[in-house]
Amino acid sequence: LWKFMSAFQQCLSPWKFQHPLSQQQFAEEERQWEATEVKEADRVPDTMQTPDVPPLTPAKDQFQEELVIRPLHSGDIYASFQFRTMWDTDFLRGSKVSHYRLFPKSLGQVISKFSVRELHISFTQGYWRTMQWGQPFLPSPPGAELWVWFQDTVTDVDGAWKELTNVLSGIFCASLNFIDSTNTVQPSASFKPLGLGNVTDQRFLRYAVLPREIVCTENLTPWKKLLPCGSKAGLAVLMKSEKLFHSSFHSQALHFRPVCQDWKCKSTVWELRQTLNVVFDLHTSGQGKRGERSLKCYSMVIMQACVVFPLQGELFELSPTTPLLSQAVVLGDRRTYSVYDLTNQATFGQTRSLNMLLRWRAAESGDMLRPLLHGERYVAGYGLQTGEIHTLMYNNHPYRAFPVLLLDTVPWYLRLYIHTLTVTSKGRDNKPSYIHYQPSKDRLRPHLLEMLVQLPPNSVTEVTMQFERALLKWTEYTPDPNHGFYVGSSVISALVPSVVAMDTNSTRECPLFSSFFPCKEESSYFMRVYTEPLLVNLPTPDFSMPYNVICLTCTVVAVGYGSLYNLLTRTFQVEEPSPGLAKRLANIIRRLRGVPLL
Amino acid sequence: MQAKAGQFFSSGHTNNWAVLVCTSRFWFNYRHVANTLSVYRSVKRLGIPDSHIVLMLADDMACNHRNPKPATVFSHKNMELNVYGDDVEVDYRGYEVTVENFLRVLTGRLPPSTPRSKRLLSDDHSNILIYLTGTSRWNGFLKFQDSEEISNVELADAFEQMWTKRRYNELLFIIDTCQGASMYERFYSPNLMALASSQVGEDSLSHQPDLAIGVHLMDRYTFYLLEFLEDIHPASTANMNDLFKVCPKSQCVSTPGHRTDLFLRDPGNVLITDFFGSVRKVEITMETINLTAPMVFSIEIIIKNYCNQ
Questions:
Q1: Which Pfam families does UniProt cross-reference here (chain B) (predicted)?
Q2: Distance CA B83, CA B206 (A)
Q3: Which residues of B touch A170 (CB under 8 A)?
Q4: How many CB pairs under 8 A join A and B?
Q5: Cα(A150)–Cα(A111) distance, rounded to whole angstroms?
Q6: DSSP 3-state helix, strand, coil percentages of chain A (rounded to 5)?
Q7: N or C: which end of chain B has fewer CB within 10 A?
Q8: Is the pLDDT of residue A211 over 90?
C-alpha cells in the first residue's frame, strides 16, 4: 500500500506542476465521466456481451480503442494507441452519405469524392531501431508516407491523386502538396491492398514518401480532431504533445480500408484505424536507470477501451495486477498480455483513477529474440560527383531462407547506373528472380526499382548500385541546399517464417496427429521493414551573397575599368627596332667579307 | 451617403481574418517563430477561429532537434508561457512560405486544388490583420527564408489588388523587423493602418536570450505587444491609440512607428478587438421578414431596416 501511495504522490506532484489547471481539469473530467455513462449503453462493445442484456440493434458504426504498453529490452517503453472505427455504409454507390456519427466527416467526404478504396498515411519522427527494439506493430518510414488504392471506376488517377494530396495537406497541416510526379511511383508488387477487394492493377495505386516532413503538434491537432470525441475523452486524453514529442520515436498514422463484417464475409464494412506509436526514451524522460517507473500519471477517463500489457513475469511486475490475461501470437511470437479493461468498473476499484506502476525486477534484461529480418542502407563513395548506394538485408533465421521484395525509390537527380547493380549473399552472386525497373526522367519521374531476392538463412545480402549526382538549376535548390537532399527509405516486404512454428518444444506435449506438419498457429507472417533514409549532398553553387558580390564587382571593375583606362591612356608610337647583338656581329663580318648586309 | 456616414462612425465589418507570417529559417531565428505564435495565440484567444487564420511558419522550432523542450516555443525566459500550445494549426510551413505563396494568399489567386484552410476567403466586410516578422538588412524589403525578398512596392501593389477586388473592409498591417517603417511607406490603398517596430535607419532588437534554449526568445516589440494583448479580453474597449503607445523607445530601443493617413476612421474610435478579435455584431430587428417572397422584395425590406436605424 505504501508503495502504491508513494507512486500515486509521485505521479500527482509532477502532474500538478505541469498543469496549473489540474484541479479544474480533474473536476471537469469527473463530470464528463458521469455524462458518458449514459451513452455507453447504446454502443455495442466488441468484446463479449453478457447474456442477460437484451440484444440491441447493432449500431451501424462502432468505435474501439486500445493502448498497448510494452517495455522494450533496452529499457525504453513502447506505447501504441489504436483507435478503430468501423462503419457499415456505402460510400460509392447509392445515395450520398450525409449523416456522420463516429466516422469523421472531413475524411468521409474526401473518400467519397476521390473514390478511394484504401488510404494509408503516416507521419513519423525518428527511425525505428529494429535491432534494439524488436518489431513495431505497424512499421512506418521517417517523414510522411502516403499510399492510396483508388477504385477501378476512377478514370484520371493522376488528377485524383494530385487533388487528394492537396486536400490531405489541408486536413493534416502538412506539406503533402509537395507530392507530385517527381516523387510518386506505382509499385507493382510491394504494396498490395491490405483490405478486401480483387483489384490489383497497379494503375490504381500511388505511393509517395516525403522523408523531410516533420511531425509536430500542428499535425497531431487535426489528427486528434478526427477521433469521435477528439481529445476530450477516451484514451486520447493521455496524448499530451509535450510528452509525445519528447521521445525517440513518434509515429501517427491513419489507415482506411474495407474489411469483412464478420467471419462469413457476406458484406464489407469500412475500417478506419488511427494509430500512434511512441517510444519513450529511458534517459530523456528523466529516469536514468531502470528502477520504479510510473507510467503516464494521469487520471484516466475512458469510454470504451482496454489497456494491454505484454507480461514477461521474470522481467518486471505490474501493479495493480489484473486477473485478465490473454495470449496472442503477434509477429510470429507468442506473448502473454495482461489486459486492463477500462469499460469494466471493477478495474478502477474504489478510486476513479487507475495508476499503473511498472517495476523492473532484474537489472539486466534477458536475451531478446533477434528480429528475423532487418535492413540497413547507406551511401558510400566520396566527392560530389559519384556515389554508391548499399542496401544490406539481414536474415537471422538459423535454417530457413525466404524471399523478400525490395522497393527503392530514388529521385531523378541521383542518376542510377543500373548496369552496376550487384546483389551478393555470403560472397556469392544472388540473382533476383523478379526485377521491375522504371528509369527516371529528369524533373518528371523518379527511379523505381523492385526486386524479389531470396535471402539465404543466417546471412547478409548486399545490394549495391552506383549513381551520379546531377547539377540542378539554380531555382530548383531549396533555401538551405547545404543541408543536403533526402532519398526516401527503401521498403523490404516479406513473408517471414514464424518463430512460433520454430518452437519444437511445444510439440512434445501435443498428440501425434497434430504435430506431424509444422503448421501450428501461423507458419509465416507478413512483415515490412523500412531502412534509413539517405541524406545526399548535391553539388551546390555558392549562394552566399558577399562572395558573389565580391566576384562580380571585381570582375566588372577589372574588365571595365581596365579596358577604359587602356583606351584612354595608351598611345601608339612607331619605333625603329635596333638589330640584336648577333645580327650586328654578323653584319660586321659581312662588311669585312664584302657580302650584302642582313 | 447615409451608409458612408454610418461607416465613418462604426466599423461595418462582419468577419475577421488574420494572416500571420514568419519568414525566417534556421534555429537562431527562433524568436521570429515565437513572435508569430504569440500573435496567433492572442488572436485565437480573442475569438478568431483557426479557419479564419492563415498561419505561415518558415521553419519548425517546436520539434526541432535542437529544442531541449520539444513541442514547445517559449516567449519568456524561465519558460513561463508556451505560445505553441496544444492546439495549433499551421497552414503553410517550411518551404511553402515563399513570396509567391504569400502574395497569392493575399490576392486570392491560388490554384484550384488549394484546400480551404490555405485560402484567405475574405470579402468586402472583412477586417484583416496582417502580421509579418523576419529579417531585413536594408530598407525597403523583407527577406523570405534567406533566399528571396519582398519589396515594399510589391506589398503596396498587393494591397491595392485586394482593394480593387474588394477583399477587405479595413486592414491592419503590423511588421516587426529592422527598418520596418520602410515597408509601409509605399502604401496607397484606402483603409490601411500600419504599425512597425522601428523607423528607417533603426534596427529592431531582440529581447532576451534563454540560457537553456540558447537563442533569443522574442523580439522586443512583439514581446511588449504580447504583454499588452494579454490584458485585452473580447469585451475590451481599448483602442488603437493604446496600441500605438506599446513599446516606447525606453523599452524597445528602436522607435515604433505607425501610419494612419489612409485610414478613414479616427484611430481613437477603432477598437483593438476590431482586428485582433472576432466580435460579431448581432442586429436585433423587431420586424418579420418574409423569406418566401421573391428575392428583390426581401432585399428591399432589409435595406429599409438598415437605413432606418
A1: Peptidase_C13
A2: 17
A3: 91, 114-118
A4: 82
A5: 10
A6: 25, 35, 40
A7: N
A8: yes
Q: Is A28 on the interface with B (CB under 8 A)?
A: no
- Cell of residue A583, nine digits: 645580327
Q: Is residue B96 less than 8 Å (CB to CB) from chain A? A: yes
B119 touches chain A (CB under 8 A): no
Residue that wins the pLDDT comparison between A243 and A523: A243
| Alpha helices per DSSP H over A146-283 | 157-172, 217-225, 241-244
Least CA distance to B60: which residue of chain A? A214
Q: Which chain A residues have a beta carbon less than 8 Å from that of B26?
A: 480
Interface test with B, best of A158, A169, A180 (most B CBs within 10 A): A169
A19–B contact, CB cutoff 8 A? no
* Average of per-residue pLDDT values in chain A: 78
Contact A179, A443 (CB under 8 A): no
Half-sphere exposure of A565 (CA within 13 A, CB side): 6
Whether chain A has a CB inside 8 Å of the CB on B94: the answer is yes
Q: Which residues contact A435 (CB under 8 A, 6 or more apart)?
A: A449, A450, A451, A452
Q: Considering CB atoms only, which of A125, A170, A212 is closest to B116?
A: A170
Instruction: State residue A348's pLDDT score.
Output: 61
Name the residue facing B63 among A162, A171, A245 (closest C-beta). Answer: A245
pLDDT in tens, A41-71: 333 333 333 344 444 444 578 888 888 888 8
The grid cell for B72 is 514547445
The mean-pLDDT minimum among A548-562, B60-74, B96-110, B275-289 falls in B275-289
Name the grid cell of B117. Answer: 484552410
DSSP assignment letter at A40: G
Single-letter residue type at A370: R
Chain A residues with beta carbon closer than 8 angstroms to that of B60: 214, 216
- Cβ-Cβ contacts under 8 Å for A8 (sequence gap 6 or more): A355
Q: Verify cis geometry, omega within 30 degrees of 0, for the bond prior to A45.
A: no
Identity of the residue in B26, B71, B94 whose CB atom sits nearest the CB atom of A217: B71
Check residues A280 and A205 and name the one with the higher pLDDT. Answer: A205
Determine contact: B27 vs chain A, CB below 8 A.
Answer: no
Residue contact A216–B62, C-beta within 8 A: yes
Q: β-strand A414-425 against A428-429: which pairing, if any?
A: antiparallel
Identify the weakest region by mean pLDDT among A135-149, A308-322, A396-410: A308-322
Tell me the pLDDT band of A406, cut-offs 50, 70 and 90: very high
CA distance B174 to chain A (A): 24
The answer to whether residue A182 scores a pLDDT higher than 60 is yes
Cα–Cα distances in Å, from A134 out to A165, A167, A252, B86? 32, 35, 19, 31
**Looking at this protein, which amino acid is placed at residue A122?**
S
pLDDT, tens digit, 9 for 90 and up, residues A306-349 = 555 554 444 455 556 666 666 666 666 667 777 777 766 666 66
Residue A158 burial (CB count, 10 A): 12
Q: Which residues of A touch B68 (CB under 8 A)?
A: none
* A-interface mutation test, from B86, B97, B110, B120, most A Cβ less than 10 A away: B86
Mean pLDDT of chain B: 88
The three grid cell numbers given for residue A417, joined into one nine-digit string: 547506373
B60 in reach of chain A (CB within 8 A): yes
